[in-house]
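Person: I keep going back and forth on a fold encoding question. Show me how you would write down a chain together with its backbone fold. Please set it down just below, with no commentary around it:
Helper:
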Amino acid sequence: MTTADSTTPRVHPERQRRVKTALNLFSGTAWVTGFLLLLLVIRMVMQYLLNMDVSALDWVARVHGLAFIAFLMASLNLGTKARWSAVEWLTTALSGVIPLMSFIVEAKRRHDVKRTFQLV
C-alpha cells in the first residue's frame, strides 16, 4: 500500500537542521515581540485612556522596536530557507505589529514548516 508520505521526497538532513534552527529563532522572536506588543498596548491604554503615570514603562516601546527588528530578521532568515513567497513573508512580518497576531502566525508557520521539512 502506497501512502502520500512514501512518495514525498526526503529532505536532506543538513537542510532540515538549518531550517529547524531558523524556525526556533523565528519562534522565539515572535513570542518576545508578541509579548512586548501586548505590554505596549497595556501601557498605552493606561496612559491615554486611564490617565495613569506609566513612566516606569517608558522602556517598552524601545525594547519592542528592537525585538521587532530581530523578528523581521528572523522571519527573513526562515523565509529564505523555507522559500516563502513574498506574500507569506509580508503577512508574517506584519504580524509583529498587530496585537496577538504574532502568536497566531507563529503557530501556523511552525506547523507548515515542520510538515514541509519533515521536522520532529
Summary: The chain has a mean pLDDT of 92. The helical segments are 4-7, 13-49, 59-82, 86-94, 101-116. The chain has five helices and no strands. The chain has one domain: 13-116.
